[in-house]
Specification:
The protein is of the alpha/beta class. It has three domains: 173 residues, NAD(P)-binding Rossmann-like Domain (Rossmann fold), CATH 3.40.50.720; 154 residues, no CATH class; 83 residues, Alpha-Beta Complex (Type Iii Antifreeze Protein Isoform Hplc 12), CATH 3.90.1210. The protein is built from 16 helices and 16 strands. Strands 3-4-2-1-5-6-7 form a seven-stranded parallel sheet, with helices on both faces.
């Protein structure tokens, strides 16, 4: 943090702020815009793109800017940036191609649309910070491969739970412990929630009902923990994670997890429901050196060999701009796959489904997502949750059954399916040869 705020202050004093474009302008996007414009010297939000121009305008209005310039051409956007005039557009490609933009924040919450936007940004050598666990958990590894080849950074963000977990993981590892659990603290987990049951909560906070449904039904946390697994090399111990209902303090989990099982698994992602302090994230680390255990006991961390570390909050929109600074000024990736997928999010039926039905999207009425290890997903041809929307069922599927590629007809011509197939081929599990 000291490095980041010092670097931003230097850019502010030099009159050379980091120039950021934001693609997507919903609940989180409005908060991010306000944060950059009013609370982050050294960074400038030069343009906002949304498929609904009114939403892009609202992003600036929330920050106190009431007259952004609407642009429809590349030259008009470049002129606006040079003139220091905030710009809005419904054409995201203009931001991807703009020479006057240092980095993009992608906060659309989409998969098909965002995949095209990110490829366009990478092709024009733009760093991208994503607030989009659903996209990352579906085709993040192949998008990261494209970014690496182009010499740019594609990263998740601070503030959301995965970024907070990754920061904590790096800290625990840096002080010499071996992280064996990266976990998320939830208040509710019910796979059968839907936009109708969550409508009043969504209205209370000005959010979309399907978005808060994805929080409640476990799909969101599955995507979040999948991308943590992909960034750390961890796996899940079982489909859906362990997911204890645990009402104690998070430090007490060191007595609940079995150390030998964790060592055998090599590290897992997980969650608990009801633990304190909430909301937050935790990392359970292993230290078996008796000398270090003596010091840790003195520091009131317990007897070991498992030790608990936690962050009791996540401040999404407040921290996302710091991720941009880390990427642009420090070349530091917050969160990204280290190779191919370790964990995927698969599609399960939320209710009994009939042949001929078309699946709806994340956080709706027909499906929910759970974590599964990527090698199992490929072997069993399980349908990724991020690709389920728009698929038509070939056969009846009972509630809670996992849906496979063989159960559906995919929509034609989707970029996300092409990228997923490329990802599966590039990172296919190694085949074990058996001697006759």
């Amino acid at each position: 943090m000291i490095i980041v705020d010092t670097a931003l202050q230097a850019r502010h004093e030099a009159g050379n702020p980091v120039k950021v474009g934001m693609i997507g302008a919903g609940f989180m996007g409005w908060g991010i815009a306000n944060q950059i414009v009013n609370y982050l010297p050294g960074m400038e939000l030069v343009a906002v793109s949304s498929r609904t121009l009114a939403s892009a305008r609202k992003a600036y209005a929330e920050a106190g800017i009431d007259d952004p310039l609407e642009v429809t051409t590349q030259s008009a956007l470049e002129d606006a940036i040079r003139a220091g005039k905030p710009a809005v557009t419904d054409d995201a490609t203009l931001l991807c191609r703009a020479e006057g933009i240092d980095a993009l924040i992608e906060v659309t919450g989409t998969i098909e649309f965002a995949a095209g936007v990110i490829l366009e940004a990478i092709a024009h050598r733009k760093h991208v910070v994503m607030m989009n666990a659903e996209l990352d958990g579906t085709i993040g590894p192949i998008l990261k491969a494209y970014a690496d080849e182009a010499g740019v950074i594609l990263s998740g963000c601070d503030g959301d739970q995965p970024g907070v977990e990754m920061n904590l993981f790096r800290y625990v590892k840096s002080i010499g412990l071996k992280p064996l659990v990266c976990g998320n603290i939830k208040g509710l987990q019910d796979p059968y929630r839907n936009p109708t049951t969550q409508a009043s909560f969504a209205a209370q906070w000005g959010q979309a009902a399907h978005m808060v449904t994805s929080f409640a039904d476990g799909t969101k946390i599955s995507f979040e923990q999948a991308i943590v697994a992909n960034a750390t090399g961890m796996k899940v111990s079982q489909r859906g994670m362990i997911g204890l209902d645990f009402r104690g303090h998070i430090d007490e989990l060191t007595q609940v997890y079995d150390v030998e099982s964790l060592k055998t698994w090599g590290g897992i992602v997980d969650y608990v429901v009801g633990a304190q302090p909430s909301p937050g994230v935790y990392v359970i680390g292993l230290m078996e050196d008796p000398k270090q255990q003596h010091y840790l006991r003195y520091y009131k961390k317990g007897d070991g060999p498992l030790y608990s570390f936690y962050t009791p909050y996540h401040l999404c929109h407040l921290e996302v701009p710091l991720s941009v600074a880390r990427v642009v000024l420090c070349n530091d990736v917050v969160l990204a796959p280290i190779a191919g997928p370790m964990v995927d999010v698969i599609t399960l039926a939320k209710t009994d489904l009939k042949a001929g039905e078309t699946l709806d999207g994340i956080g709706y009425y027909k499906t929910y997502g759970q974590c599964e290890n990527a090698d199992v997903v490929q072997t069993q041809r399980l349908l990724p949750m991020g690709l389920a929307e728009g698929c038509r069922l070939k056969r009846d599927i009972p509630r809670d059954q996992a849906i496979t590629y063989d159960d559906v007809i995919l929509p034609e011509g989707r970029l996300c399916d092409k990228l997923r197939a490329e990802q599966d081929a590039r990172f296919a599990p190694a085949k074990v040869l058996v001697e006759a």
